[in-house]
Write a structure and sequence with these properties.
Helix content is 38%, strand content 5%. With 87 residues, it is mainly alpha-helical. Helix 2 crosses helix 3. The mean pLDDT is 75.
């Protein structure tokens, strides 16, 4: 894993999307946040295209979508976001 347990505990809690019994409204099981965050770190540190992200981080589309949502809401920037971060 790229994000160690110690670092994971320091990250702000990212909100979850609306869900029912562990699944999103669309019926898909939610991908673990830690796995997705590790995918983001791996992609950035290795300067890979999104499509070349290894399968162990989940579908590249999922990692990209969350990265985009968190970036637009400034959840990944230092400091506190002005609006609640999307799930």
């Amino acid at each position: 894993m790229i994000v160690t347990h110690r670092v994971w505990l320091l990250l702000p809690r990212l909100p979850l999307p609306p869900h029912v019994h562990g699944r999103t409204i669309l019926g898909r099981a939610r991908m673990y946040d830690r796995r997705v965050i590790n995918g983001m770190v791996y992609k950035i540190s290795n300067r890979l295209p999104w499509r070349d992200l290894p399968d162990r981080y989940g579908p590249w589309q999922t990692v990209y979508t969350r990265f985009r949502r968190y970036s637009v809401a400034r959840c990944l920037h230092p400091g506190t976001p002005t609006d609640p971060c999307p799930g």
